Amino acid sequence: MNFLGRAILAMACAGALLAADSFFLGSWKIESAAVAPWWTEGGKPDATESKSLAGKTVVFTPGGVSGPGILGCKGPHYKVVEVPADGLFQGAFDEMHRLDPHADPAKLAEQAGFRGKSWKSLQTGCASEIDFHFMDDNTAAFGLNNYVYVLKRR
Q: Looking at the predicted structure, is the pLDDT value of residue 9 above 60?
């Protein structure tokens, strides 16, 4: 196979790989915000940000993430990884378990709406370092400032 043939084959394979890992592309609506289970202070954390994000739309495209505040990002470096319960929300459930051995990451994940033993997580490579965890093909969640936000595919 000549150079041009190899280059075309390589681009086709890369396109297929992107397609396989691009299930997250599209428009998502932030449906809800709940106080994160790792919040241990008295009362609720400041709800100003959560109220400003509820109902807003986040759009993932190959060239960027559009959304309110720090959710927006140009030139992301998307990476999809599989994470167990203790890896959700940047290890928050694992941290809870280390502080209290009775805090079971699997049970915490289930209480947050995750079914199963591991989930796809989207790392955007954006400055905000927010990971999006997929409960299923149409539902995702992310943690921000002691709130867990749930997104639904539009």
A: no
